[in-house]
Predict the structure.
Amino acid sequence: MTVYVDLVFLSNLTIDASILMTTAKVRHLRPRRRRVALSASIGAAYAAAMFVTSVPYLYSFGAKLMISALMVYVTFGYGGPLKFARTMGSFYLVNFATLGAVIGISSLVKWSGSPWRGIAFTEDGGMVLSFDVQAFMLAVTLGVAIWLYRSEAESRESRKRLEALVVDVTIRIGEREWSCRGLVDTGNRLYDPLTRIPVMILEASLWRDDLPIGWADRLKSESADRLIGELEEAEGGLSAFRDRYRLVPYRAAGGSSKLMLAVKPDSVSIKDPAGKEAACVHRRVLVGLDGGSLSSEGAYRAIIHSDLTLASVEVPESSPQTA
């Protein structure tokens, strides 16, 4: 078998650089490109050295650990024992995940028939897995593996950031209460123009059985003022809602002005799901109704106005305000 050392060096250079950059993405670090190139060169030279030198302990566990530590140090620096250990752990995690994906994808695409065809047994009872992959297949599977790993890591971080903004919301009208999850939106600056009361957004489907028949679905396509005009003829609506309806003007994404159907509740309670903060009770608030779904995954059913966050001043229950 002919082995081209230059190809071994270049292929390992590319692989090591990709793994280092993926590790940087996972750890939210921004190393210099020349440091990544130098570190990848160390790893590639180490892989190619087996074909030009014969040192018994060069590829022992301790030597491999030292080379890995050197690569991480050259790329990211030291930064203290805890930070360095975490970076080393992420580096190995990316390595293992990438290698497993490369082997799995290659086996899925290339192998056919019995899986025992690629397994051989030695005289002393050992088992040898024969794994042969072409350079093109290696490059493709490596790229797919790194893409899958980075996509999953980014998705996980996005979910964590989203969960940090999700709160428990309880809306009270009379003796009735409705609870759901809400997303705190710092960009939501919707107010009633006359009273300057903040408006939070709620999926109308949450009140499907309490609104007049059909309103929850009709809000998707029909204007709110038309529904209000039919209020006297509508049946099945909660009687306590009749004097609580409001029309709030707002500007849609296309720039056109529209009216949103809103309800004046007795109070809205907002609480951190983790229980780290006491619940804030707000009475000066309107609940605007949206006919669609606010979250495609159902993670939340309300959009919380920025003035109603946990940092807002709690309104005492003894001093109610009405719109």
